[in-house]
Amino acid sequence: MWAICLNEFKGHFKSFKSIVVIAIIFGVTYLTADLMSNLMASFPEEAAELGTDGYATGIVILIFVLGFFFITGLSHDIVNREVSERTMRFLVTKTTRLNVLMGKYLGVWFFWLFCMVVCFLLITIKSKDFLWLGLVDTMLFLSVALALNLVFSIVIPKPGVTMFVGITFALVFPALSFWAIFSGKLYITWFKFLTPYYYSSLADYYILINGLYAFLLLLLAYWLFKRRDF
């Protein structure tokens, strides 16, 4: 499992797309934190109302709005690539399917953990305080997004189709989620309970529900993966 995990982790740093995504995330994070720092110096009373969490505004908005899009672009073929290249049969004969699945998932998860830790360290340079809650919130949200991406890659056999479905989902799902959260209409408001955005918006300990959400999606992914023939 850990060999697969390490391979996925290192592989995400080798592509041009990954470099572009990392540059965007780091750039937006630092520029937003710097802007907040300047705002704090120029308008201390107004900026104080935002608190230190205001420094993380850039990375939080970026991940919540474009997180699914980034994950699709980098990891849409995390499972079906191996199936398409006929290397999955080799993997499942060398180790258990659970190890293969968790190795794939954790490899990508650790990649995003690395990115988020660096982002929050950049924020710390300006805020003088490490925002642990912000890091936990973004990682729990990303855990759900990664688990959904894993399910798509198992269900859809062709990497090209996964890319199309993933991008479409990354555009539609956030829009429906925000609509459900802020709408009072019964025909859409129920949908908020199916979206990780809702539990993140509740803040406090409610963000831990996203951890349970990700776990249930991983159970679904494992059930689907066991049923596949390679």
Automatic annotation (TrEMBL):
Keywords in alphabetical order: Membrane, Transmembrane, Transmembrane helix
Question: Membrane-spanning residues where?
Answer: 20-43, 55-79, 100-125, 131-156, 163-182, 202-225
Keyword DNA repair among record annotations: no
Give the protein's recorded name: ABC transporter permease subunit
Origin species: Sutcliffiella horikoshii
